[in-house]
Amino acid sequence: MPIVLYNGQRPWTAPKRFRALMEGQDAFGEELLDFEYVLIDVERYTERELLELSNTIGAVFLLDQTADRQQLHDRLSKLMGTVRSMPEELKKSISELAGEYGRKAAAGAA
């Protein structure tokens, strides 16, 4: 089943069935491919839900929701237990990701 990962600020409103996305879909009859995708709407998860995942995906999603440097600092503090249990290569990736979000937050504050 296809997966759509969405991290926009506004709620996802598009239909989840492929046929429903196609204008004039009835003209194609049964010949038009149809499927439903799984939507992962990152912004709709709460901080608590993402922290409870205690995994890399939860950490990345939580950092992606970060709005400013203070929130980034607070969230990194909360994620330390999760990050400590990760393999070294993932720790490095999370560190790089946090640095990127820190730069974006600093640029947004300027």
Structural features, described:
- The chain has helices spanning 18-21, 47-53, 56-64, 69-84, 88-109, and strands at 3-6, 38-41.
- The protein has 110 residues and is mainly α.
- It has a two-stranded parallel ribbon.
- Helix 2 packs antiparallel against helix 3 (56-64), helix 3 (56-64) packs antiparallel against helix 4 and helix 3 (56-64) runs parallel beside helix 5.
- It starts with a strand and ends with a helix.
Structure in a nutshell:
With 110 residues, the protein is mainly α. It is built from five helices and two strands.
Give a topology summary.
Blueprint lengths: L2 E4 L11 H4 L16 E4 L5 H7 L2 H9 L4 H16 L3 H22 L1
Parallel strand pairs: 1-2
Helix pairs in contact: 2-3, 3-4, 3-5, 4-5
Descriptive key words:
single chain, 110 residues, mainly alpha, two-stranded parallel sheet, 5 helices, 2 strands
- How far apart, in Å, are the first and last alpha carbons? 42 Å
Principal-axis shape equals elongated
* Fraction in helix: 40-55%
Order of helices and strands: EHEHHHH
- Summed up, the helix count is 5
How many beta-strand elements?
2
Largest sheet: 2 strands, parallel
The mean pLDDT is: 87
Low-confidence stretches: none
Major beta sheet, strand line-up = 1-2
Class from secondary-structure proportions: mainly alpha
How much of the polypeptide forms β-strand, as a percent range?
5-15%
Radius of gyration: 18 Å
